[in-house]
Amino acid sequence: MNDWAPIAKEYDPLKAGSIDGTDEEPHDRAIWRAMLARYVPNKGVTGDPHLTLFVARLNLQTTEEKLKEVFSRYGDIRKIRLVRDLVTGFSKGYAFIEYKEERALLKAHRDANRLVIDQHEIFVDFELERTLKGWIPRRLGGGFGGKKESGQLRFGGRDRPFRKPINLPNMKSDFYGEGSAEKRNWPREGTRDWRTRDRDHERSRDKRWPERERSWAWGESERERDSKEERSRGRERKDRDR
Question: Which residue intervals are annotated with compositional bias (Basic and acidic residues) in the record (predicted)?
Fold first, then answer.
């Protein structure tokens, strides 16, 4: 627990598939594929990975010019690579932006996340392919994020960080006689055990019972007195009529 962090420092497919990073068994086949995969980053990718920003969830109509217009406000850009399909040439909805200075990179990472570009809320993070040890991409069962509909959620990234594990000690219920006799010594100052509570309840019930009887008796006498008054009024009316 001392070295716990919401963002993964190394990529472990098994931990990435767990909401708090504590799973011991894979719960979907994609995690198995990621654990067995041996991924080597694309050697054809150039540029400084520590100055590169990953931008995802882009509108498919967003162009390199639009990205340069938006992200150049954070600092000088060295290169923009909008990933496109090799066959159709259409955008795949994500890009990589390399800055000239680390200060510009950090500012864009802080301020550009969830920015709306062309009616799409974008996601911004550091490049992980060449900087995070053990990285496995999404197409091999790894990555971070994911959708609930796919059933392949991944945790430990900026979009969906780990939740802090809750470790509860194994506690036995002393109410049923478990544990040592010393631990079952319940009564303390200001507290009462269940036996004392039951005795007090019985006493209070005995005290309340005569009060209820008196109230019922009072209610009966009142009703009798009211009925007598009604009968006497009825006799008076009959005498007047005569």
Answer: 147-162, 180-242
Could you report the per-residue pLDDT of 191-208, keeping only the tens digit for each? Answer: 444 445 455 555 555 555
User: Which H/E stretch holds residue 195?
Assistant: helix 194-241
109 within domain boundaries: yes
Cα 34 to Cα 13: distance, rounded to the nearest angstrom:
6
What is the C-alpha to C-alpha distance for residues 77 and 175, in angstroms, rounded to an integer? Answer: 68
Say how far apart CA 102 and CA 90 lie, in whole Å: 30
The pLDDT of 156-163, averaged and rounded, is 94
Pairing type for strands 52-56 and 77-84 reads unpaired
Q: Residue 234: inside a domain, yes or no? A: no
Q: What is the pTM of this model?
A: 0.66
Q: Mark whether 161 and 55 lie in a shared domain.
A: no
Domain boundaries, position 95: 48-133
SS3 (DSSP) at 88: coil
Three-state SS at 116: strand
